[in-house]
Amino acid sequence: MSSNRVPDTLTFECETGNYHTFCPISCVAWLYQKIEDSFFLVIGTKTCGYFLQNALGVMIFAEPRYAMAELEEGDISAQLNDYVELKRLCVQIKKNRNPSVIVWIGTCTTEIIKMDLEGMAPRLEGEIGIPIVVARANGLDYAFTQGEDTVLAAMAHRCPDYNGASPNTTNQDQAIQGLLSFLPLKARNVYEEQSVSTHPPLVLFGSLPSNVVSQLNLELKKQSIQVSGWLPTQRYAELPSVGEGVYVCGVNPFLSRTATTLMRRKKCKLIGAPFPIGPDGTRAWIEKICSVFDIQPQGLEERELQVWDSLKDYINLVRGKSVFFMGDNLLEVSLARFLIRCGMIVYEIGIPYMDKRYQAAELALLQETCNQMGTLMPRIVEKPDNYNQVQRMRELQPDLAITGMAHANPLEARGISTKWSVEFTFAQIHGFTNARDILELVTRPLRRNLSLENLGWTALVKKDKINII
Amino acid sequence: MKLAYWMYAGPAHIGTLRVASSFRNVHAIMHAPLGDDYFNVMRSMLERERDFTPVTASIVDRHVLARGSQEKVVENITRKDKEERPDLIVLTPTCTSSILQEDLQNFVNRASSTSYSDVILADVNHYRVNELQAADRTLEQIVRYYLEKARKQNTLNQSISNIPSVNIIGMFTLGFHNQHDCRELKRLFQDLGIQVNEIIPEGGSIENLRNIPKAWLNIVPYREVGLMTASYLKKEFGMPYVAITPMGIVGTAEFIRQIEFYINKWAPILLGKTVNYESYIDQQTRFVSQAAWFSRSIDCQNLTGKKAVVFGDTTHAASMTKILAREMGIHVVCAGTYCKHDSDWFQEQVKGYCDEVLITDNHTDVGDMIARLEPSSIFGSQMERHIGKRLDIPCGVISAPVHIQNFPLGYRPFLGYEGTNQIADLVYNSFTLGMEDHLLEIFGGHDTKEVITKSLSTDLDLAWDSDSLSELSKIPGFVRGKIKRNTEKFARQNSLSKITVEVMYAAKEALNA
């Protein structure tokens, strides 16, 4: 708090944790859409329900495959039997939707009243015949995207065991199988291609839209790397087999529990790579995987240059501009690294939680990128304090603040351009193909500024209020 | 346990925060886990607030669970006291913290001994009251606290004003069209020569609460929030209150007559004469508001006997039912509310104006009822608008819960005489659109249909293989056409005759789309 100077090595600070972020139960929003045959039951109170309803906006009207098991006074004071109550609701869900899996999302309330979800699930699973996965995605322990991490970690336990012999092809997305059909266009032999995969099985983890999944598969395919499965898959029944001898690699920076579970419980080997966000990240990600499998990457450099080339117009807009990440979704380090490579100056990387081991390769790439671009290292602030951050921003006056919606409008009114951070979670930002989408988001306030320039009203709060941030 | 997808009224702490953050220079501190502060998002998004929402959280995390909050809450209160110097800090429990059963009152006592601000603990039970009930209670709690404090310090301003004056109670943040209603009421009182003494909580200052007893009477425009405060003020200070909602022509006239009645209790003494608002009511009704004329016009004649369903909070649903039935001759087949705690009042209000009454907070019951009754139009909340979309029935939004489009920038009151115009437009637009729709259906739609839907790309020379087609079908409908055109354009430029998934991605990258 004392000084606003940007340090020259990567520094880690930890503040009070008084910051704004989404509750981790919000992960149901994208996970129920990703896993098509699932049903997410959030066991919590009205507060949780109201959050989902407001945060997910329109989605709520589309007959979503998620619901609240709303706890009432009788549940809290243990006048009602949890098991009987949950069974009643799950039977109803089975009757109405017949999902292949029910995911119970434990919340703060179930933690506090110590409802034994992990104990009840196997028993109920046996009785109603539908798998029940328990994820404790609560605000006591986690922030926003970490909700997905808890769900995927729980799901990792349900992946079939890998036994070295059987080829691991049945678990592929339809999209991958589809991709094989037009490989001849690339003047390669399909049959050879299939038998070429001599490397050990590779399973990627992290929930991405199916388009992005096929894009990343395709990029690896070009390096003769066969992805044998994804966690999660489009359907619960198609979870990939994992076990000793299987290599796993994460696509998102917030999946440290999933990584740990795959390593420790499932004996997989983790490939620690930077994340495929931005062309630099994507290239580093592929290179790392190639190096593990002892494959010489083909044409990656040209591919990256070509993507950078196509981003020129946007890069001209962002070059030399400064960014301040307030921090709420754990994508911050990867995004900051990409933006520094684009020529931006990053003052501060706020982040809810920093797993230095899981993100090691990403942090190394950040440092390397800073050196390469000749910029000072940004400070990384774990568990930030929003009030202090706003004070720092007042002094630094960044060109762009990447922040939650609670602060966006007030900052805009004080003349600081903002980009809503949650959009990065919902937009397609992975791989070479989507690099432009990241810059599309980042430059939007800058482009808006260009079109509204010369109007003379940037600070829109009354004079006496500007200073009382 | 209850299986729930949607709720009409939010949890209790939202009500408390809405009241607290409506006052000027009042800060609320939630005792809550990370992520429970999405109230700030709602306020900043829906109301497009320029200022930081004066709500922070004292985070309940794993450590707090193990050891209790200890110094944390007190530290957060004193820190906020130093940083922003609010007049009042409201410590707000959430459903999570209320299970922890920490002695929050003790924290409040300790913190208030060291801070400049007053500190109080919001007194709401999360498992018994909803957002609206909690807001009502918190407002009463704050008013009571400051009037009692003023009484102790002998600063209570009890001398009644020289000219007729009122307090408007219950205007607050995130309320359905509250800001516009507030402006309209102020205009109405100005017309009537009545001074507005205090408006609480919106924009009100804690300092001024001691002036409340100066007013001749209190106005509670909305049933949901303000009644507790008004009845407290009646009991303590003998202040009468008017709890009629001035919505619709008849409702507004009743409201004004009731005010006249109370003003005339003091007027002979303080003004030396009685007031009579009848000519004002007559003038406004017949010539200023267009709604009375509208209901005589042939437009409205065509609406006679058309079926409508009304659902919302008690205030808006009851008023709307009466307006439709009594002022426009529309057949209200069902009127309903989600305010179960106030169902007796609602039933009594709509009695005689509708065929049946539905009291529920389950949106599927509402959906089933609408599907069964097949009205020509619905007047409800955003939920009913979506039910209407699915059933192809037009809907006018008349009540919270609402979306951002229900916080319009333009002037759209629901109350007072301008409100009657707005409501007439809303009703008329909902029905004509429905009618137009039917006509289109009967005559097979506009004849330009084929021209519009005809694909602009010539498909002849390009073949999409089955994978690329399935990939295309995964793209959301509203951009699919554009992606298809771009891909084909790219394929033609590169003289490719077959479109595969690879070509699609290559096109995306090449065209920067």
Automatic annotation (TrEMBL), chain A:
Keyword Transmembrane: no
Residues binding [4Fe-4S] cluster, per UniProt: C23, C48, C108
Annotated compartments: Plastid, Chloroplast
Cofactor: [4Fe-4S] cluster
EC number: 1.3.7.7
Reactions it catalyzes: chlorophyllide a + oxidized 2[4Fe-4S]-[ferredoxin] + 2 ADP + 2 phosphate = protochlorophyllide a + reduced 2[4Fe-4S]-[ferredoxin] + 2 ATP + 2 H2O
Pathway: Porphyrin-containing compound metabolism; chlorophyll biosynthesis (light-independent)
Keywords carried by this UniProt record: 4Fe-4S, ATP-binding, Chlorophyll biosynthesis, Chloroplast, Iron, Iron-sulfur, Metal-binding, Nucleotide-binding, Oxidoreductase, Photosynthesis, Plastid
Gene Ontology annotations of biological process type: light-independent chlorophyll biosynthetic process; photosynthesis, dark reaction
Pfam family, any one: Oxidored_nitro
Domain of life: Eukaryota
Record's cofactor remark: Binds 1 [4Fe-4S] cluster per heterodimer. The cluster is bound at the heterodimer interface by residues from both subunits.
Keyword Membrane part of the UniProt annotation: no
Major localization listed first in the record, in broad terms: plastid
Ranges where the Nitrogenase/oxidoreductase component domain occurs: 23-444
GO molecular function annotations of the record: 4 iron, 4 sulfur cluster binding; ATP binding; metal ion binding; oxidoreductase activity, acting on iron-sulfur proteins as donors; oxidoreductase activity, acting on the CH-CH group of donors, iron-sulfur protein as acceptor
GO CC terms of this entry: chloroplast
Family indicated by similarity: Belongs to the BchN/ChlN family.
Complex formation: Protochlorophyllide reductase is composed of three subunits; ChlL, ChlN and ChlB. Forms a heterotetramer of two ChlB and two ChlN subunits.
Role according to the record: Component of the dark-operative protochlorophyllide reductase (DPOR) that uses Mg-ATP and reduced ferredoxin to reduce ring D of protochlorophyllide (Pchlide) to form chlorophyllide a (Chlide). This reaction is light-independent. The NB-protein (ChlN-ChlB) is the catalytic component of the complex.
Name under which the protein is recorded: Light-independent protochlorophyllide reductase subunit N
UniProt source species: Cylindrocystis brebissonii
TrEMBL record, chain B:
Molecular function via GO: 4 iron, 4 sulfur cluster binding; ATP binding; metal ion binding; oxidoreductase activity, acting on iron-sulfur proteins as donors; oxidoreductase activity, acting on the CH-CH group of donors, iron-sulfur protein as acceptor
One cellular component term from this protein's GO annotations in UniProt: chloroplast
Nitrogenase/oxidoreductase component domain segment(s): 12-431
Pathway stated in the Swiss-Prot or TrEMBL entry: Porphyrin-containing compound metabolism; chlorophyll biosynthesis (light-independent)
Keyword entries, A-Z: 4Fe-4S, ATP-binding, Chlorophyll biosynthesis, Chloroplast, Iron, Iron-sulfur, Metal-binding, Nucleotide-binding, Oxidoreductase, Photosynthesis, Plastid
Similarity remark: Belongs to the ChlB/BchB/BchZ family.
Protein name: Light-independent protochlorophyllide reductase subunit B
Organism: Cylindrocystis brebissonii
